[in-house]
UniProtKB/TrEMBL annotation:
Record protein name field: YbjQ family protein
Pfam family, one: YbjQ_1
Domain of life according to the entry: Bacteria
Family: Belongs to the UPF0145 family.
Coiled coil: none
InterPro entries: UPF0145_dom_sf, UPF0145_YbjQ-like
TM spans (from-to): none
Organism: Winogradskyella pulchriflava
Length: 99
């Protein structure tokens, strides 16, 4: 599956727009503030990476349900909530491209 932030894919022709798809994920473990700042930032970064991959997996799964082979116009939003949970929301347009 092709995933891109652009609205077109160089070398491919979009033949059908199938709908907007999303993938949202949040970490289940609250990040402890008792870390030193460097360890805290490393923990936040690692947590966001894991949550982002889960959100992308959900986006791909939702696109596949629409029989898409690509998602264009992807937007990624990352939020650290007031309770120190990392949340990632990804939105894009599921499309069918000629292969």
């Amino acid at each position: 599956m092709i995933l891109t932030t652009t609205n077109s894919i160089e070398g491919y022709k979009i033949i059908d727009y199938l709908g907007i798809v999303t993938g949202v994920a949040m970490n289940e473990n609250k990040l402890a503030m008792s870390f030193s700042m460097s360890k805290y930032y490393k923990a936040v970064s690692e947590s966001i990476d894991v949550v982002k991959e889960e959100a992308f997996k959900k986006l791909r799964d939702n696109a596949l349900k629409l029989k898409a082979n690509a998602v264009v116009g992807i937007k990624v939003e990352i939020e650290l909530t007031t309770h120190n949970y990392a949340m990632v929301s990804i939105t894009g347009t599921a499309v069918k491209v000629a292969v």
